[in-house]
Write a structure and sequence with these properties.
about 675 residues; mainly beta; three-stranded antiparallel beta sheet; 4 helices; about 50% strand
């Protein structure tokens, strides 16, 4: 039977090939009448430019592929592929980032699984890009890491027709790190498609994403004063520094299916001015995602307080969500775009089993459904652009309202004013409400005791080529949810030694969720300006922050600054374009958040002040055609500075001096 199938396939292939060859044979004319035909004019070929390579985001905003080399590209050339000005990375690539600035404007209407420190680099639904390209396009992003590993992001996108596009991308990453048991690795796959019918009445797009982010956890330094801060040459090889944990890791796993399609009830037309006529459409959006966060430890230890219920430790939280949105959309050139929607959200957050303790029973599941209505608006009236979003919960316990409105006014080509209002009410992430662990101290159920967190903010600013970009944001938060500890939860400190988290001890404080009773007022002012003189430029970004609060539950540095002096020029008869310079970054000392590896979360601590040290990087970047080449000496000042006080979090040092390089290469078929 198998041989018959192979024979049949071979026959079909040969038959098709022969038929195709016969079609190519010349035909013998039957009409011998001589006719004179005018030669056909060759069709003019449409020139392909960079504008034919489009990148479309979740909100359907479109930009063109950019292969230039700028200082902003230098800032985005990192693990996250975005500007990390308000972040402080740990020593190894792919490990958590501490916050130097905060944003409370949540785009998501519903709570997440938590483990926020382990989600850096994770592709949310809004992070996935769609494409429309004239010819197949490939982008390769490569950068070296720290010891035995690389970072590679490969993307291929192509159009099978003018209206149908596919893309496939994968990020493979591994970095061993300089310290013991600090390895990080991840695999992030995503594939997309988008299609528009020839009459523009139906459009559909979707994506599938499968992601795994895994990291070893060492708990930080065991004796940081003796082995790190002292500058002892015996421990400059960081692999010899003792750490708290040597047998633990945590992992985020996710699979997501997303579909968004729309049918226009009225065929869209454009008038002589190329503006869209009246449009009426119905739409549907579907999002199904499964996600898990796990913490594993082969043998329980005293770092998390002992009292292990099982051995080995295998903590795992699951979250399954399904989101459906049905919408009606109306637009014309006068009223803009208006849409109304009905949203259905189903969730199932769970652990393996009930936990029955002598004085309390911890449930193993939070499940339910939420129904909400919403509206979106966009319009451009001359130089004025308006955008707004509203969500209101009709049924369910997780959310309340979300309001997000923005207006911008373009004074001229070089100056733009903008203002925004934001307000939301929703429950904290699921790991605040329910958590189970094989460690006795990390079990809680707070669904009945926690309230919705209330956030209101106002944001305004000016984007100007001459004056620079300046913005101010004022935020008020009520019922702020955070992780922390009570003073009595601190481990005992040896008499005569400074009280430091994890210093000269093997136990961390018992971290648990809290909710602030008073209001928090948070002000953030940010200014960015670049000064140019001939081929030289000085790019400056400065941020000022101030927090008003009854109890100290939100800690940020008062000043964060980044200044880059660089030189740009064409070389080798304009065959190459280079940028080389030095970047200085500094933030004032403050009570830096500490990191808990079991939860994958940062928590508030007010026992020690860190920061107040400079970070100096020197870079040489070049562009050859569509290839950008990057070379950087990171944290160069540690070569001559003997102050070993650079921490990314209490007990977690920032990286030492290291040289890294890589490239971003776009090529077209």
């Amino acid at each position: 039977m198998r041989g018959f199938k192979l024979l049949l396939i071979l026959f079909l292939i040969c038959g098709v090939k022969a038929w195709a060859q016969n079609d190519l044979l010349p035909t013998i004319p039957t009409d011998t009448t001589k006719r004179i035909q005018r030669p056909e004019k060759p069709e003019a070929k449409q020139e392909i430019t960079i504008a034919n390579y489009k990148i479309i985001n979740h909100r359907r905003d479109t930009v063109y592929l950019d292969t230039s080399l700028t200082i902003q590209k230098e800032y985005r050339y990192n693990f996250l592929r975005r500007d990390d000005f308000e972040l402080m990375p740990f020593s190894n690539i792919g490990q958590p980032y501490n916050s130097l600035g905060v944003n409370f404007e949540e785009e998501h209407f519903y709570p997440k699984i938590g483990a926020r420190a382990r989600h850096f680099g994770f592709f949310e639904t809004e992070d996935v890009k769609y494409y429309n390209v004239a010819t197949p396009m490939t982008e390769l992003f490569f950068k070296t890491t720290l010891e035995q590993g690389q970072l590679l992001d490969a993307l291929l996108t192509f159009n099978t027709s003018e209206r149908l596009n596919f893309s496939i991308a994968f990020i493979g990453f591994r970095s061993l790190g300089k310290y013991q048991f600090d390895q990080a690795q991840s695999g992030r796959f995503r594939t997309t498609f988008n299609y528009v019918t020839q009459n523009n009445r139906y459009m559909v797009r979707g994506h599938y994403a499968s992601q795994e982010l895994d990291g070893e956890e060492n708990g930080g330094l065991l004796n940081r004063e003796l082995q790190f801060e002292s500058g002892d040459e015996d421990f400059l090889d960081r692999a010899r520094v003792d750490v708290l944990i040597s047998n633990a890791n945590n992992t985020v796993n996710s699979k997501r299916y997303f579909l968004d399609h729309q049918f226009n009830l009225v065929r869209p037309r454009r008038d002589s001015l190329k503006t869209r006529s009246t449009l009426l459409a119905i739409g549907h959006q579907f999002n199904y995602e499964t996600k898990s966060y796990s913490f594993n430890q082969t043998t329980p230890g005293e770092v998390f307080g002992g009292n292990a219920l099982e051995s080995p430790i295998r903590d795992k939280a699951f979250l399954r969500t399904m989101y459906n949105q049905v919408s009606a959309n109306f637009s014309n050139k006068t009223l803009g775009r208006v849409s109304g929607s009905l949203n259905f959200y189903n969730y199932d957050y769970s652990f393996r089993s009930l936990l029955i303790l002598p004085d309390v029973t911890i449930p193993n599941q939070l499940t339910g459904s939420e129904i909400a209505v919403g509206g979106d608006y966009w319009n451009r009236i001359g130089p004025l652009e308006l955008r707004g979003k509203l969500r209101f919960n009709l049924s369910g316990d997780l959310t309340g309202t979300l309001f997000d409105a923005e207006a911008s006014y373009r004074l001229n080509d070089k100056n733009r004013l903008f203002a925004a209002l934001y307000g939301s009410s929703r429950m904290p992430n699921f790991n605040f409400l329910l958590y189970q662990s094989d460690y006795l101290n990390y079990n809680w159920s707070n669904l009945d005791s926690f309230d919705k967190q209330q956030t209101q903010s106002i944001h305004f600013g000016l984007d100007s080529d001459f004056f620079g970009n300046i913005s101010a944001k004022f935020t008020t938060i009520d019922k702020y949810a955070y992780f922390g500890f009570n003073d009595e939860d601190l481990p005992e400190v040896v008499e005569g030694e400074e009280e430091q988290l994890g210093n000269n001890g093997e136990q961390l404080p018992f971290v648990r969720p809290f909710q602030a009773t008073g209001s928090i007022n948070y002000l953030k002012v940010k200014y960015q300006k670049e000064f140019k003189w001939r081929k030289w430029a000085l790019n400056n970004t400065v941020m000022y922050q101030n927090v008003g609060q009854d109890s100290q539950v939100l800690n940020v540095p008062e000043i964060v600054t980044r200044n880059t002096l660089y030189y740009s020029s064409d070389v080798f008869k304009k065959a190459m374009y280079i940028q080389t310079g030095v970047t200085f970054k500094y933030f004032t000392s403050y009570n830096m958040d500490a990191y808990n590896p079991l939860l994958g979360e940062f928590y508030i601590q007010n026992n020690e002040t860190l920061g107040g040290y400079p970070l100096i990087d020197v870079f040489i970047n070049a562009r050859v055609r569509q290839t950008r080449i990057y070379f950087k000496a990171e944290h160069l000042n540690t070569v001559w500075d003997n102050q070993f006080n650079y921490y990314a979090a209490p007990n977690y040092p920032y990286r030492d001096f290291v040289i890294r390089f890589g490239l971003v290469w776009n090529f077209f078929s």
